[in-house]
Amino acid sequence: MKAFFSIVGFAFLVGCGGGGLDGVLKEVESYKDKMCACKDKACAEKVKADFDEYMGKAKKEFGDKKPTKEQDEKFDKLDDEMEACEDKLTSAAETK
């Protein structure tokens, strides 16, 4: 499922000035929290679709700016946590 989060990449998410990337990282964390709160596959699919839509908008807004190493590492950590939560729901749905 890693591909889900990697489809749109991260390098384009850096905004100019103070709030750009911090705001994006807060949104990504919010989606991670929503995914991890899901109790079934349908919920996870909805969060995934909403996240994909958000990432598409962020790409248009922030262009091709590069994150710092710390920003990139934080995104990767959130990405891994969200993926783990999604994988649990997918595995549970497959065993039913």
Your description of this structure?
- The chain is mostly helical and 96 residues long.
- It has four helices and no strands.
- The protein has helices at 2-6, 20-37, 41-62, 69-94.
- The radius of gyration is 14 Å and the shape is elongated.
- The two termini are 19 Å apart.
Largest sheet: none
Low-confidence stretches: 1-18
Using the CA coordinates, give the radius of gyration.
14 Å
Shape: elongated
Mean pLDDT: 79
Distance between the termini: 19 Å
What's the helix count? 4
Bin the helical content.
over 70%
Order of helices and strands: HHHH
Strand content: under 5%
List the topology elements.
Layout: H1 2-6, H2 20-37, H3 41-62, H4 69-94
Helix pairs in contact: 2-3, 2-4
What attributes characterize this protein structure?
96 residues, mainly alpha, 4 helices, 74% helix, disordered N terminus
Summarize the structure.
This protein has 96 residues and is an all-alpha fold. Mean pLDDT is 79; it is low at 1-18.
